[in-house]
Amino acid sequence: MSPLQVLQTHFGYSSFRLEQENIIQSVLQKKDTFVLMPTGGGKSLCYQVPALMLDGLTIVISPLIALMKDQVDALRLNGIQAAYLNSTQSSFEQEAILDKARSKELKLLYLAPEKLLRQEETAALPKNQSAKFTPTPFFNTILSLHVCLIAIDEAHCISHWGHDFRPEYLMLAHLKRALPAVPVIALTATADNLTRRDIVDKLALKEPAIFISSFNRANIRYTVEPKAGATDKLYDFLTKRKNESGIIYCLSRASTETLASNLKANGFDALPYHAGLEREQRARHQEMFLRDEVKIMVATIAFGMGIDKSNVRYVVHMDLPKNIESYYQETGRAGRDGLDSEALMFYSYGDVTKLKYFAEVEGNQEQTNIAFRKLDQMAMYGDLSSCRRKYLLNYFDEPADDYCGNCDSCLAQVERVDGTIAAQKVLSAVSRLQERFGAGYIIDFLRGSNSSKIPDDHRQLKTFGIGSDVSKEEWNRIIRDITAQGYLAKSEGTYPVLKLTTKSIAVLKGMERVMITQSRAIVEKQEASETIEYDTELFDKLRALRRQLAEDENVPAYIVLSDATLQELAA
Ligand code: ADP
Ligand code: MG
């Protein structure tokens, strides 16, 4: 079976996302592989698919017990032989699972990293990474299994520079050294250049293939508000979103409790979450949030790693996060379903001073300096008057346009302009492609992309490439804008496709003008280049149709309608 067939038969998905397929190929070629992909991007399949294709057992290192269980349950539901081992199980249970692994009845075995390490050694590790290591009996058991792949999820946990250092992760290099022929795939959603190099180093990856997906989360709107009056602003914000699900991050445990109970007293549906709550209570609150039984989770950063809840509509930061990695990871929990979502942060410079006080690492000037620098970068984000998305993406070494149109800075520099032509181009592409594609594809199509995803029959359509003068980001924004105004609709589901609405027809017919918000810079650029290809044959056809429909004479030449739309027009 090919990776695609495995994806379809075992997981029920029709196609790979982003770089998934290339990553899987790299693993199948037994290369060490490093994957940096945003939260919700689909990292799990990058090792789950190879696990089913390779001969032997795939060990998955995963830091969170709750997460491990969810993943294994999901795999089992798909009929895949998977199990996990962690400290919540009795030794009898653990032995039974190892027996299964020995008799090759398992394809994937999830492991908590602390299983590989003696307790007393954990304490020694953070200060001295090369601490002498005596393998636990368990470590030796793992070596005796027929291991074909080691997957290390949340790999940034191995680095001090990440935001979630776990000393047990340092043991994984020993695992790699003991099994030099077994490929390792390390996956994370959070790593700047420094952390990235640190991960590759500490895991002792050999000439790894490196895959870095775009970090842009176009559907998340970034906003920063001054912290003065934060509570009132928060209530305003929440009142407009009463039926929506969201996370509010606070710095301290106490403030999560206070805020949650104040919210409750004011009729909002909120619960606190922090590491100081009883284990059962924490689990219960998390579960309730996942099941939509409570709308608002007021939490410390203890909440959220790996949580796969698709309809989180907003993430609010009441206090400044300690670095951009954490901030991006936390805001990334919003809008995993691709629908418009908000990231709102309250900011005052006082937070920087306060956090610096906590960030000092006694006796380690280098670490202190790095922590301070990261805080300064976070503060710069708060103070920014240019595009916030660009700042975030550049932070992760990803280039970006000066203008995203979906953050408070960009939105402050816009004006309403006549966007009828742009809207008509989008609507005619949606129509021509029979309302079967999402925004990403429609944009590639409009821009005449040479991506292999676009088949020849689509390339031959007249609408192909009619929007090549506008950037991807800009098209995304236009589509978001006209969707919000009801000229387009999005279907439900993980992969929403764009659909025409009753309002689209009037625009296509030239009977309604569409106003859109745009930056002055873009308006000027477009005014300079506004020439439209004139296609006689098509125009004649349309004219015939128009006559037939007895409509006005105004349909522009680049509008190409699908049969379905023509029928709708005729109706
Ligand atoms: P990550 O670990 O990168 O945060 P996950 O592996 O948890 O992301 O995947 C996020 C969601 O996306 C999951 O619900 C998963 O089933 C879904 N997903 C991943 N890849 C695909 C795909 N190719 N097609 C459809 N859904 C996918
Ligand atoms: Mg994951």
UniProtKB/TrEMBL annotation:
Helicase C-terminal domain span: 230-381
Group of enzyme by EC: isomerase
Coiled coil is among the record's keywords: no
Helicase ATP-binding domain segment(s): 24-209
Enzyme Commission identifier(s): 5.6.2.4
Catalytic reaction list: Couples ATP hydrolysis with the unwinding of duplex DNA by translocating in the 3'-5' direction
Gene Ontology molecular function, alphabetical: helicase activity
Keyword Metal-binding: yes
Cofactor list: Mg(2+); Zn(2+)
Keywords noted in UniProt: ATP-binding, DNA damage, DNA recombination, DNA repair, DNA-binding, Helicase, Hydrolase, Isomerase, Metal-binding, Nucleotide-binding, Zinc
Annotated family: Belongs to the helicase family. RecQ subfamily.
Name of the protein in its database record: DNA helicase RecQ
Organism: Ohtaekwangia kribbensis
